[in-house]
């Protein structure tokens, strides 16, 4: 199986989808410069650089998507999405509904986020929950190159606007990627490790931290189940509920701020629908209510690490069932 | 319903303006009577809409905004379905989900109406990119106001359209009002057209209260966009003679300025000119008014008879 980085897996997905469907185009901040091999294959009309103007990039994608093209736009860093909020939230997310279903918006927005490069809070802000909270949008954040390729292919084929977040800390990690043109449905989580004592639910780089924590827990006789959500909307509620039904304990982990993050939604989901299964309180581990600093130790401290995840899970397993 | 053929008979232009006025006045009185929600009207701006829309071809695409009645009706929209939409009824163009503010009618080529001021400018380049890349002949016409021209999206849109050679006819309906703020208080220049030169986009202003002048200017502008496949900006100078959103007592409006513009009412000006040059008789003028009144009465009855959407509609059409 070939080995690709997540960055190259994105390029591979784009290449395959652009070969498959001539209505797929890509434009954004430096995409034609950084992915010049796509320009060589598809020409400068289908792969374009743009001004550094996120609002008009996103707006152009929305207008093009509604009228026959399938644009993929690269807005670089997630905090820059603030400049594109109107186009993504008010237009892409709402105009299908407000028009009585006259339009659809098959577009993908790529944005990088997360700790890893020490770029500080104006380039690193995990804002994915904002878009989960906005109707009409789908949200994906893969943790491996293979998932990134297969999910991006599905996102490009999806008739809805998809926010596709790339974790900076994972971008240049290599991983095996199937050579065939495999796709993965959006909204399906994956169980990376089975266990019956505690469920660790995560997405993005903290999936790896959960896997490391599960190793540590195994050394202490605790069998942790690790779930990678991969998509945040649609959310694979069944995968979460099934696992908690088995383990009775849940730790939700993400790099994004804990306050009103995805973890809060998942905790509420489990409290509402699987309360009787719970043997212990739910724990959420997430970033603090603070902008992310550039300084390496502070940046790392904003991310739930394996040791904290293992400690939280062990605490739950030590608690006596009510 | 397909987009209506452009009007060639000047009496048709007058009738279209009368229809817009009667339609909006029906909403104003309906909202005063508590039967309809308040809306943003385009009363006083009818000539700007009728002149420009009659310059377009059937395969051109229109992006408009919250003051869209003139664009929709001139394009051939059924006033009954429009009123049903305003009233939140099932037979509206958007199944009652839009209300008056974001009415799109894809079948008429009126696409992606947004009420976020400036959003039409953000979306227009993408629509034009589709026209270009998919080899469609139609140009894109983007209606916006002087308020939207003060948004960053105006400047980003013009820059990208010029850079990428996009066939967009930008039509600024400068109605002198940006919600409750006069254009003088918000714009560094007198005219939006002045800004186009910075992007290498040809532009001109025209009297938006003279339907014949607006039509001629729009025909020339549309022809230029069609031939060059590049953007052009036409500014129709007009005046919003009613408030921002009904009901509105317009207490903030300079009465002398309002009176001066009311004296230049585009419908009265057109009618007087046609009566003076003999192309319209007083009897024909009365017949036009009667025909329009009847159409609006029928439309209103249709809208009132249309049911509200069922509760199951609440979450339909959110996702494709």
TrEMBL record, chain A:
Pfam families: Transket_pyr, Transketolase_C. Keywords: Oxidoreductase, Pyruvate, Thiamine pyrophosphate. It comes from the Bacteria. Its cofactor is thiamine diphosphate. GO terms for molecular function: oxidoreductase activity. The keyword Oxidoreductase applies. SUPFAM superfamilies: Thiamin diphosphate-binding fold (THDP-binding), TK C-terminal domain-like. Residues 4-173 form the Transketolase-like pyrimidine-binding domain. PANTHER family: PYRUVATE DEHYDROGENASE E1 COMPONENT BETA SUBUNIT, PYRUVATE DEHYDROGENASE E1 COMPONENT SUBUNIT BETA. This is Pyruvate dehydrogenase. It comes from Dechloromonas denitrificans.
From TrEMBL, chain B:
The keyword Ion transport does not apply. GO terms for molecular function: pyruvate dehydrogenase (acetyl-transferring) activity. Residues 17-311 form the Dehydrogenase E1 component domain. Keywords: Oxidoreductase, Thiamine pyrophosphate. It comes from the Bacteria. SUPFAM superfamilies: Thiamin diphosphate-binding fold (THDP-binding) (SSF52518). Pfam families: E1_dh (PF00676). InterPro entries: DH_E1, PDH_E1_Alpha_Subunit, THDP-binding. This is Dehydrogenase. The lineage of its organism: Bacteria, Pseudomonadati, Pseudomonadota, Betaproteobacteria, Rhodocyclales.
